[in-house]
Every structure is written in structure tokens, then in C-alpha cells.
Amino acid sequence: MSRVARQVSVIAALAFTSLVHAEDVATPKPKKVLDTIMNPAYIPGEEKHASYWRTSVAATIQEKLNQKLNTNKAKNGIFFIGDGMSLATIMAARTFAGQLEREVGEDNTLSFEKFPVSGLARTYCLDAQVPDSACTATSYLTRVKTKYGTIGLDGNVTRGACSSQLHQGNLVSSIGQWALDAGLDAGLVTTTRVTHASPAGMYAHSSERNWEADSDVPQECLDLGCKDIAYQLVKEKPGNMYKVIMGGGRREFTPNITNAQFKSGGKRLDNLDLTEAWHADKMEKNATHQYVTDRNELMKVFNAEELPEYLLGLFNDDHMAYHLQARDQPTLEEMVEVAIKMLSRNPKGYFLFVEGGRIDHAHHDSLAHLALDETVEYAKAVEKAKSLTSREDTLIVVSSDHAHTMTVAGYPSRGNDILGTVDTALGSDDIPYTTISYANGKGQSVGADGKRIDVTKSQSFLTRSLDYEYPGMVPMDSETHGGGDVAVYALGPWQHLFTASYEQNVVPHLIAYAMCIGNEKDEHCKPKSGGFWSPNSSSNKASSFSFICVAVIVSYLRRLL
Ligand SMILES: [Zn+2]
């Protein structure tokens, strides 16, 4: 059935159902939860026939059989992280996106879910069962697991202990650095502050993830010579070599003064304007460069005849706004398009890190509606990257740093509003409950009278308001991360390596292997032509065989003469 025809049927079915419901009895209350009787508004007609499912599985296996092993060297690598994008978030976001299109929802597929290979990564950190974004960033960008709250340092460092962060032996380098070392270009794009934990994993070494500006760093640490994260990005390697840096966090770079130039005031107390320092550094490198602060300026750069060599985009003082509440800021998809256009000029290739960082923030505030929309936006950015590159020479990996406590629970009918209440049953307290809820967080589940809150009496819930906080069981100021494994999806050269279940720090190692960066001296990284006596390439074997044949013939002729 075509999409239009399907939409018409959905609308017709919904209209029919509401007619029936007007005179229908209330949904029967199951005696036991497994006695639930489903009450879907609509089931696509073709799905009722077994042949539909048999045909679709046959197509799936054929697709798999048609896959050829891609062992090309990956010239480019693009690594997407959806911060806090748990498996439940992926399921809910695909359903949400499908329902926005007036589809039933559950069978919708996000862009990266179409990738041919997926695996699972374990996210615990050195000292934490459930990790934060700092130790995981270190894990998935440097291939070294480390301690909670620390970035770019190994487990010998204690959180907040400055002197150990100055000891070179404790520093671990990122895949961004490995790319630069191999002559590739590198860059990063995020929707959070560019100094936030995940992007900081690309360039910083900090025993405390919160040291984003100098005003965050204790005086005794500054005296010892510890540098804040923004400073490291602009003034030190590898950050000052990155061709593209885009996200939020302007306040971490600008001085704590208010005048015409710094209207909103920055956080820095050292009087440095690091955007100026970035400009001065590029002048010194004699490189064209551009600093932009809103979507218009970015689009001007993008549409100009020639792109600058370096681009810094800081689109908000704090994190970038949620997509649904944004004004005058580029989307993640737009930033990815600009970044790929910038980086693909290097004939040797590039490594790009992209973070959809605000899925996590929405979850922390129990704002499920925003978390799902941010996930959909993230999926659009992945689709854009896929459309701008070739799977023959570009490896795209999509994953998450850690899970969250959001669950999709109860037995709602197929097509039931993913942001609504379970349609088939009430709780044993005879009060409705939401399909989405959190194990903890700000959203209250129990009222002052000690009874569970009836969400259907909340206007904010009924209108699906963006600031409606989904209920959590344990009251907390901020909903926490979850400890579940995260999915890893891969497309491109060496995609088959990403299958199965492994530690999270394996991921950058696999990407580096495919790209031949990061000290990789593997066979597939050697130039294809090779020397005459090189033993392994098939063309060389053929040459050796010809050489032996000629030698035998010459010796035979000699004997004859
Ligand atoms: Zn978080």
C-alpha cells in the first residue's frame, strides 16, 4: 500500500474508531495483566496475511546474502554519538517519528537502523557501574577506559587531582589526534557546549569534566599550570588543528565583562577572549578562517564560493537550544553538511566526530517529548552524512555513550500514542499510567495525598507540552543515566568488525583499524602496488611466478646451446 493510501486508511480507521467508541463501552479492565485485550485503532491490512511476513523475511535474508565483504581502507570516518540514546530511546523515537507521519509508528525505521551491521557496547567505567559522559568519551574516543568524571587521562588519575593530569604518562590521545598524525583532517560538531564532556574527549586532558573555563578551575590547580578545557581546545594540540569546531558554549571562551562586544558576558576571569586567540592562531598559520555565531553567518560561509580553511561556530552562550525551541541556530543536520563539505577537501581523508548531545539533557529533565525529537534530529544528521559520502570509502559508525532510565512499559495497543497513557489497562490503583516513564527524576509520580497522580488531569500532559515531565519513581533533581548496553551501528569499509558484543573502548580501535590510523600497521593498510619481492599480494605472487618461469626457460635454452 502506498504511503498516501496508508495515511488515508489510518485517518479513516481513526474516524471509524472514534465513532464506534462514542457509543462503545469502556475498555475492559483485565483481571490479570496478561489477559489484556489489545485495542488498536488500525492494523495495516497486508500485515494480517502470513504471506506479507514471509515475503519480508525473504527480502531481508536476500539483502544479507547480497552483502559483499568491504575491506577497503576507509579514507574517511564519521563517528556519531547520541548522548544518552538508550535502546528504549531508539524504539520510542522511531515510533514517535512514525506517528508524526500519521503512520502506526512501531514499524518505522530511523536512518541508522538501516545500517547493515550492529553490535552492543558495554559502557561501565573504571570505577562506575553506570558511567557518565566523561569516562565514556575517553573510552569511545581514546580506546582507554578510565574513571568517572575524567577526560583524556588513564585510570591513574583521581578526579579533580590536578597534578596527576600534568603527568605526561597519564595522558591518552584521541582518534582525532591519530587522524591528524596520519595527515588527515579532523573536526567536531555537537549540540552541547563544545567544551562539554563528550566533545572534550576529542582534544582535552582534564581530571575534572566541569573545568570548562578557567573560572571553574580551583586556584591551586591554575597555579600548578592546569588549563581549562576551552583553553586546551584553542591553544593546544590537537584542538587547535581541528578544521571544524561547531556547537554551543560561547561563554566558556569569552571574558567575564559586559560591554558592546560581550553583551551577555562570558565566564573567563583571565581576561582572555579565546575566539580572538583562535583567530590569532589561524593568522599565524596563514590560513583562511571564519568565526560564526548564528545560522545566517554559517549559511553565508557554506554558500560562499570558497570555504575557509578553518571554521569555528559557537551558536549559543550555553548549550545550543533544543531543536523544537531553537531560533536562528543551525540544525545538527546542517552542521554535519557544512563539516563534511569542509573536511572532504583533504585528499587523504578525514575524521569527524558528531554528537547529538541534548537527548541526554532532555532525559535528565524527564522531558521525554524533547528527548525523542532530539533523537529524530540526530537520525536526520546521520542520513545527511550517508547521502554525502560513499560506503566504498567512508565508514560511518553510530552509537551512544550510555543509556538512561526511560522505559516503554505496560501493554499498549499497536499505534497507541507513544507519549500517551497505556490504552488497554489502568494501574491496580485504578489510575491511568503513561507508556513512557523514568526510574527516577524530577517528574513526580505521587501527589501530596500519597496517591499516584492521574496524568490525564494535567493539561500540560494532555496537550503533549514540551515541558511536561514524565513520571519517575524515585524523586531526584535530575534523572540519572542507565547502565544498559548501547547499540553500535556501522556502514562502510570493515563494517563487519562491529558485530557482536564488546567493551565500549573497542569501538575507536575498530574505526582506527578501518582507517589505518592510530599506529595501525596492518596488512590492509599497505599500499596495494607493493615491491617485486613483497610476499603477500596476489599480483606479486603472479610476478614471482613469471620470474621463475622465465628463469627455467633461460636455463633450459642455455643447456640446449
Ligand atoms: Zn547525562
From TrEMBL:
* Class of the enzyme per the UniProt entry, highest EC level: hydrolase
The answer to whether keyword Ubl conjugation applies is no
Show the CDD domains listed in the entry. Answer: ALP
Q: Which GO terms describe its molecular function?
A: alkaline phosphatase activity; metal ion binding
Residues that, per the record, bind Mg(2+)? D83, H196, S198, E355
Gene3D superfamilies found in the cross-reference section: Alkaline Phosphatase, subunit A (3.40.720.10)
Q: Which residues form the signal peptide?
A: 1-22
The record ties this protein, via InterPro entries, to: Alkaline_phosphatase, Alkaline_phosphatase_AS, Alkaline_phosphatase_core_sf
Membrane topology, as annotated: Lipid-anchor; GPI-anchor
Q: Which domain of life is it from?
A: Eukaryota
Q: What is this enzyme's catalytic activity, as reactions?
A: a phosphate monoester + H2O = an alcohol + phosphate
Family (UniProt): Belongs to the alkaline phosphatase family.
Q: What is the protein's given name?
A: Alkaline phosphatase
